[in-house]
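During the reporting period the student researcher (J.K.) took over the structure-prediction task from the postdoctoral fellow and processed the backlog of single-chain submissions. One of the processed entries is reproduced below for the supervisory committee.
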Amino acid sequence: MMESLCVFCGSASGSRPAYAQVATQLGQLMAEHKIQLIYGGGKVGMMGALADAVLAAGGEVIGVIPGALVERELAHHGVTDLIVVDSMHQRKAKMSDLSDGFLALPGGYGTLEELFEVITWAQLGFHHKPCGLLNIEGFFDPLLAMLDQAADQEFMSADCRSLLLTASDPAEALQQLIAAHPHEQPRWIDRSET
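J.K. obtained the following C-alpha cells:
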C-alpha cells in the first residue's frame, strides 16, 4: 500500500508549459489517492507547482530541505510539515525514510542524482520500494536509451534495468508505482556500511 511518495523534480519550471502542468496533475491525483507528497521543500518551479497542487486538492505535503537552501530555494512554508536538516545527505535519507516509493519528473543534476541514488539503493537491496520516471513529452528518452545501452552492453542485468518504471502520464505513473511488487535484490552490503 502506498501512503507516501517521494517526488524528485526541478526547482525551475523548464522551457515547456507541459512540465508544470503535468506536475500539477500529478499533485491532484496524489491528493485524490490520499498519497502524501514527500519532496525537497521548495516553493518555486516544478517543486512548487507540485506541492501547491497537492495542498489545493486537500492533500498532505512534507518538505525536507537543508538549512543552507531554505532562503536560496525559497522554502515552502505553507506545506503540512517543513523539515529542515543539516545536509543534502540528511535530506535524501529523510525523504527515503518517509516514502513508500519514488518518482522523478524533469529536472537537472539534483533530480538525476537523487533518482540514481535511490535506484542504486534498490539495486543493492537497501530498500524494496518502487522507483519510476514520469517521462513528460519524452524528456527522459535519451536517459532511457543510455540505460538500455548499459544493459545491452552488460553493465547492468536486465533485472536491474527493470527496477526503473517508466510512464508518460501521471495517472499511469501512479498506477505502476501502486501496483509494483517488492523487488528482492541480493544484499551486497548493509546500508550502514556505506
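The committee noted the following: The mean pLDDT is 92.
J.K. will present the remaining backlog at the next meeting.
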